[in-house]
Amino acid sequence: MSVVTNTTTIGAIEAPSRRNTELLLLAFAVVIPIFAYANVGLAIHGELPPGMFLYGLGFAVLAGIGHLVVRRYAKYADPLLLPIATLLNGLGVVLIWRLDQSERLQNLAKRSFGTFSESAPRQMMYTGLALALFAVVLLVLKDHRVLQRFTYISMAGALILLILPVVPGLGADVFGAKIWISVGGFSIQPGEFAKIVIAIFFAGYLMVKRDALALASRRFMGLYLPRGRDLGPILMIWAVSLLVLVFENDLGTSLLFFGMFVIMLYVATERTSWIVIGLLMSVGGAVVVGTFASHVKVRVTAWLDPFACYSTSGACEQVGQSIMSFGSGGVLGTGWGQGNSDLIGFAANSDFIFSTVGEELGLTGVMAFLLLYGLIIERGVRTALAARDPFGKLFAVGLSGAFALQIFVVAGGVMGLIPLTGMTMPFLASGGSSVLANWVLIAILIRISDTARRPAPAPAPSPDSEMTQVVRPS
């Protein structure tokens, strides 16, 4: 005797979206800057800042809107990217407000410009605009693979963005570097957006050409050397980065531009020779330009021995003050609002804002911030590994590599590890271009991670498999 039972097929189990985890982390990302804001007010004025609750409410609303957009339009995105970026942005506004309270900077601005205006409210406005742009990117960009169609258009767009600052009447020379354009009274740094646009070109180009670039013609000293004709792309990018360095006196953008290409080239071809060739070319170009370009030469001199020219060079004084800020911070720091990093001057809330972190939060705070940046980079690389298409893999690696390079050159410059580059710390430093561009970068990584983590659709059920007979012996 046997028993016959009917069983039906079970559909695929839906993967967890992790949106509730993101919401919980986002709550901490909003509360921590509010407490930091309160600490600064108590340290400087002996009372809670009058706008603390309004600031907290506004920041919470912006973060909540960002979360709702992700929950609705990128349900399976990485749950850490938005909270970490929110935390860094919130602490950046607090650091800028802390420097706004400095009487030294207020008096310096009045002597130089006749008036003083706080940067923190303006930075908060830029944060609102950046989160609006973040939402627009997620709404419009339904699939990151669409960007592959604009490979060569993005190359032209990136070159235009890099050329704009040297156009007469449009570009602005700020402290020797021509990296700004002035439009209608507003200053924009096109290089911040160029890094995203050029990453589209690199990803699209290397996806098509990676097999040819991976070919090696000969082996020399343990390295596989590429064929001569395959050196063309890297030579072109190298030349463009040198031109940016020469005409704009912008060491940071040229390092970022060329370094991102070398990273993506290595990921696409898995050839160590490209890394070695890229490093040799970057060092050679930097040496040549550093020898002849006066602006770069001043920064190299300040890097080698800032205290030898401390009283004669503004760059040396800034680097010297920055090193002393890190030194006086010790392990735990002097405390929020109790440092003297404002002695650096106007650059205290932009290029050198990380010096305030080193002095007031100490080595512990520096490592905490670097850990947060490292988590963004790690999640970006993890997204690249999980991406199902080669364009998405290269694009995510390029954006993560560019972000990592920018952290390295900024932190290394203010700590005296490498010469100053003039770039700003992402999310921390004052500046609308930086915060807008980096929120767009986060939005794109969220879109790629959503596509990578989204479960594949369940296959259509077969009529023959809807009912299965299972015979069990009695």
Automatic annotation (TrEMBL):
Principal subcellular localization: membrane
Molecular functions per Gene Ontology: lipid-linked peptidoglycan transporter activity
Pfam assignment, any one: FTSW_RODA_SPOVE
GO biological process: cell division; regulation of cell shape
Highest taxon listed in the record's lineage: Bacteria
Keywords of the record: Cell shape, Membrane, Transmembrane, Transmembrane helix
Places the protein is found: Membrane
Topology term for the membrane: Multi-pass membrane protein
Coiled-coil stretches: none
Cellular component GO terms held in the UniProt record: cell division site; plasma membrane
Matching PANTHER family: CELL CYCLE PROTEIN (PTHR30474), PEPTIDOGLYCAN GLYCOSYLTRANSFERASE RODA (PTHR30474:SF3)
Protein name per the record: Lipid II flippase FtsW
Organism from which the protein derives: Streptomyces lavendulae subsp. lavendulae
